[in-house]
Amino acid sequence: MAEARIGIIGGSGLYKMDALKDIEEVQVQTPFGSPSDVVILGTFEETRVAFLARHGRNHTLLPSELPFRANIYAMKQLGVEYLISASAVGSLKEDVKPLDMVVPDQFIDRTKNRVSTFFGEGIVAHIAFGDPVCGNLASVVGDAIASLNLPDVTLHRGGTYVCMEGPAFSTKAESNLYRSWGATIIGMTNLPEAKLAREAEIAYATLALVTDYDCWHPEHDSVTVDMVIANLQRNAINAQKVIQETVRRLAKNPPPSDAHSALKHAILTRLDVAPSETKEKLKLLLNKYL
Ligand SMILES: CSC[C@H]1O[C@H](OP(=O)(O)O)[C@H](O)[C@@H]1O
Ligand SMILES: Nc1ncnc2[nH]cnc12
């Protein structure tokens, strides 16, 4: 059931995509359970797009409770080849200000409680993850932001996103540790998604919307949810514009992506003798290699 080549996962404060027409709410079932909410399929300027609210449309799921595997598998089932995550993040650098946009190119994993692979149960795969986002897709997102000349928004191409477990925000000692590592931004959601998207051979990139200076900055209050939401609401119109421009550019010129063949050299198990239940469960990922 190929329905949409472009998928959007909306994070905190981004629960819908305003410009979609001919909307269908799809309750997708996957071998990994149900996604966070219905997937909204809609049309933007003749391009079919699949939108999913990561925490649910009423924001009912903690980062640690997110059904990451179901979310990414649902996108795969709908035919998604390019996936953009719009996410709220804290800044770990002075020159990355609230309301700025970052398109990160690296991640540091500080999660403790996430399942970040489709594999196991008799089939072993190790994807390459040195470059965890698709550079070509990230360029399209960056170019889309740059083309809009948004007032008061500085674009940062590249940067390292620390993915922490949460739900509590960091301590000052942790925040300063991440700063000493040279990290740029911090959030709680994008790393498991990036890994699973890579396993699913979907190109993935993040549009990170800066909402706060976390808790390290001596001249700014420590991050609170009110701060995150207030800044995201200020940024929401811009974020919608960026997503629309990105979809427009992707529809016109879908870039090649190494992610689209990520499993080619990643599967160690001989699939002809692998357990048939696991092959059945993962058939969407494995079909082209069987
Ligand atoms: C509401 S502040 C913390 C929350 O916001 C970010 O969510 P998302 O990445 O889905 O935009 C952060 O990762 C936390 O989950
Ligand atoms: N400071 C922060 N830490 C973790 N996740 C966030 N999301 C938005 N701001 C954040």
UniProtKB/TrEMBL annotation:
Keyword annotations of the record: Glycosyltransferase, Purine salvage, Transferase
Sites annotated Important for substrate specificity: S170, V225
Chemical reaction(s) catalysed: S-methyl-5'-thioadenosine + phosphate = 5-(methylsulfanyl)-alpha-D-ribose 1-phosphate + adenine
GO molecular function: S-methyl-5-thioadenosine phosphorylase activity
Name of a matching Pfam family: PNP_UDP_1
Enzyme class: transferase
GO CC list: cytosol
EC number(s) reported in the record: 2.4.2.28
Domain Nucleoside phosphorylase: 5-247
Source taxon at top rank: Bacteria
Record family assignment: Belongs to the PNP/MTAP phosphorylase family. MTAP subfamily.
Entry protein name: S-methyl-5'-thioadenosine phosphorylase
